[in-house]
Design goal:
The protein has helices at about 15-25, 40-50, 60-65, 75-85, 105-110, 145-150, 165-175, 175-195, 200-210, 215-230, 240-245, 260-270, 310-320; strands at about 5-10, 35, 55, 65-70, 95, 115-120, 130-135, 155-160, 305, 325. The protein is of the alpha/beta class. The chain folds into two domains: about 5-175, Rossmann fold, CATH 3.40.50; about 175-285, no CATH class. Strand 4, helix 4 and strand 5 form a beta-alpha-beta unit.
């Protein structure tokens, strides 16, 4: 991967997590990464912490990169993409990280030149444990996507979905899963403190035993702080806040699904207000599988694939056995 230059338009939480994962993988040098952002203080902080190069403008980032991550907030994507229309090239790959923003909308703003896909990662990319869903234009083959798989596989496991509607589901689950885990972790830490344990000891206990907890304690504590900032409104974090609202008043674990349902509705409704504690009529129907959505999972080849069971309704939809899908 040493011939690639990777650009990031935007250097917020998700961009920083991916950059950290790429660099710590040992396969990408900091000098191969170029970042640009309207927030100079954020650029300086990421540069000082991780070492990527800073571009003077978004156009410079695109001019120097083979692969470009559009990592700005969803509302900013069309405007930023239009500004890059004249400098984008046909030999480039653009990857949109914007939740709830369709590929067609990005394509319309960016123009026809570059190859394009959208993904939904999460903050676990910083410790190379992200589960990343990917949607690309139907004509694009796995060979076409090889450069994208090559980069993303350094920060987690990648799978392709054929139906773009499923991206809102993956946003609700994988994209926001750290928020749910850390919400529970925070509650457990606060319980320990309320009973007299020092914060450091209570935190260490939870970090040792929580689900999907990174071995790097500092990285995990940074993730906890990121999620707390999202919920306190210091950074928009629309998807996570919607999930948090959906969990208010819920019984755990029976009604924990309220968080993902809220984010799924939010993704489908383009920012519709989420009311805490309320679910739509469709959400209240019994059974976890209400329709058979045709999905073809397409994965790059990896050395150590990990199979996972597929629910029967999904098996019928994709015409496979109980482990037709695998992550690597």
């Amino acid at each position: 991967m040493h011939h690639e230059h990777i650009g990031f338009i935007g250097s917020g939480n998700i961009a920083e997590s991916i950059i950290r994962g790429l660099i710590t993988s040992g396969h990408v040098d900091p000098g191969q990464i170029i970042i640009s952002d309207v927030r100079q203080e954020q650029l300086d902080r990421v540069h000082q912490t991780l070492g990527p190069m800073i571009a003077a403008s978004n156009q410079e980032t695109v001019a120097r990169a083979n692969i470009v991550f559009l990592a700005v907030k969803p509302a900013q994507v069309p405007g930023v993409a239009r500004e890059l229309r004249d400098v984008a090239r046909s030999d480039q790959f653009f990857i949109s990280v914007a939740a709830g923003t369709s590929l067609a909308r990005v394509r319309d703003a960016l123009g026809e030149k570059p190859r394009l896909c959208r993904i939904m990662p999460n903050l676990s990319a910083s410790v190379r444990k992200s589960i990343i869903s990917l949607y690309a234009e139907p004509a694009m083959t796995i060979q076409d996507l090889a450069p994208v798989y090559s980069v993303l596989s350094q920060v987690g496991k990648v799978f392709r979905v054929e139906d773009e509607a499923l991206m809102s589901v993956t946003t609700a689950l994988s994209g926001s899963a750290p928020a749910y885990y850390l919400m529970m972790a925070e509650a457990l830490v606060e319980f320990g403190i309320s009973q007299g344990l020092p914060r450091e000891i209570a935190t260490a206990m939870i970090l040792m035993r929580g689900p999907d907890v990174p071995r790097d304690r500092q990285a995990h504590e940074e993730r906890m702080e990121h999620e707390k900032n999202h919920r306190n409104g210091r950074e928009p974090g629309r998807d996570h806040r919607g999930g948090h609202a959906g969990l208010q008043g819920k019984r755990v674990p029976g009604d924990l699904r309220g968080g993902p349902q809220a984010i799924h509705r939010q993704g489908q409704g383009a920012g519709r207000q989420v009311t805490p504690g309320r679910r739509s009529r469709a959400d209240r129907r019994p059974g976890p599988h209400r329709s058979a959505v045709p999905v073809r999972f397409e994965l790059p080849a990896h050395d150590e694939p990990v199979a996972f069971p597929v629910p029967r309704p999904l098996r019928a939809a994709i015409g496979g056995g109980s482990t037709v899908c695998s992550f690597s």
